[in-house]
Amino acid sequence: MPQEIDLEKYHQLALQKQKDHRKFLAGLKKKPPKNLDKIAQQIHDEVFEEIDCLACANCCKTLGPDFKEADIVRIAKYFKMKLPAFEEEFLQVDEDGDKVFKAMPCPFLCEDNLCSIYDVRPKACREFPHTDRKKIHQINHLTIKNTLTCPAAYLFVEKLRDRL
Question: Name one Pfam family in it (predicted).
């Protein structure tokens, strides 16, 4: 198993730097550099050479994905379950009207931090922490939020600040 990540250390660092990160990202939103997508992709790749998700899986332990209908259909089919049965067993509707897990950690997270449904996992899981997204400056609120949970998101913002 990969070396464990000190989640509390990253969480505290993210809390301490939240104001600076907000200010930096707000500046990017006002005047994004022409090559921001390219730089962001390079930094995303660098960060994920340093951070091994299997050593962390904090997102799978604490954040539930928002299930879209296509996710539910795909995963229910994978389990050979009818949609209502899948939803009854695993999902609930939250205060925003989104379908989310009934309980965390993710019921598909294995002890070794592998995902038992990796090939059919929800879109939100595939895209998390969204640091390789085009026009990253358009999702500042999400990036800031993710730095509190995901060490890779925190490092991404730090490296982006250093680079720009």
Answer: CxxCxxCC
